[in-house]
UniProtKB/TrEMBL annotation:
The lineage of its organism: Eukaryota, Metazoa, Ecdysozoa, Arthropoda, Crustacea. SUPFAM superfamilies: beta-beta-alpha zinc fingers. This is C2H2-type domain-containing protein. Residues 16-38 form the C2H2-type domain. It comes from Armadillidium nasatum. PROSITE patterns: ZINC_FINGER_C2H2_1 (PS00028). InterPro entries: Znf_C2H2_sf, Znf_C2H2_type.
């Protein structure tokens, strides 16, 4: 017999400890922490910005660098 989690047994809202923003998915909260507060998954400060190897783009958030690399075309 399979047992499935129900809405009543799962925490549906993930809240940012810095600004109290709410997210339904953990990945969205992680992206928010990096973009807005420069914090990693554990809440520790991100010490250096990430940069693109093909142009001058820099960001604090790994997901933004990943999206950037998908969008740009090498010359």
């Amino acid at each position: 017999m399979k047992i499935f989690a129900t809405r009543s047994t799962c925490s549906l809202v993930k809240a940012c400890k810095e600004c109290k923003a709410n997210y339904s998915q953990r990945s969205n909260l992680i992206n928010h922490l990096a973009s807005e507060h420069h914090l990693d998954v554990e809440g520790a400060p991100i010490k250096e910005q990430l940069s693109c190897t093909l142009c001058s783009f820099v960001t604090w958030a790994p997901h933004k660098l990943k999206n950037h690399k998908v969008c740009i075309k090498p010359i």
